[in-house]
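Dear colleague,

Thank you for sharing your sequence with our group. We've completed the structure prediction you requested, and as agreed, I am returning the results in plain text so they can be pasted directly into your records. Please verify that the sequence below matches your submission; if there's any discrepancy, let me know and we will rerun it promptly.
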Amino acid sequence: MNNNLKTFKNTFSSNSLIFSVKNWLYHITKILSDKKKIRTVVLILIFLYGISGCATIKPIHEPVEKKPLQDKTEDVGKNQDNINSRAIASLNLTTHGQMLLENGRIDESISIFERSISINPKNGKNYYYLAEAWYKKGNMRLSKEFNRLAGIYMDNNFFWINLVKKQKKKIAEKK
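Please find the predicted structure tokens below.
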């Protein structure tokens, strides 16, 4: 190993945190004289620059002052909160219904899923689980219909759409 590189490593590995700029420059110029080490030093310098905090991006302009919202938008905000709370309530009911279905309490789960749909009709998981519940009860007509609705409401979710397709195949085989 090159003596300059050893000295450079020893300088960085010493317990002292005080380095003079002159020593740094001396060791770097010695290492840079060896063309094979240039790439390594450049990468180290880029890394050190990146972690130094100097690479942070500062805004070019001052942030725009935010104006207060008009009264009309407050109603929209309340409506948005209402939509979010309805979606959360629906998902909670879906989870409860799923547990009931897994424990063989099919009639209770159907009731919970229907209640969840009345709160948030766009939650496709309810339709999937209703199709599953009606399948377990032996009603293939309702199972097929709820499976169709699950496919409509979950067409943008790859994972669930695959489950819906498998369920559809299972329902068709049972007929």
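Summary note from our side: Confidence is low (pLDDT under 50) at residues 13-18, 71-77.

Kind regards,
the structure core
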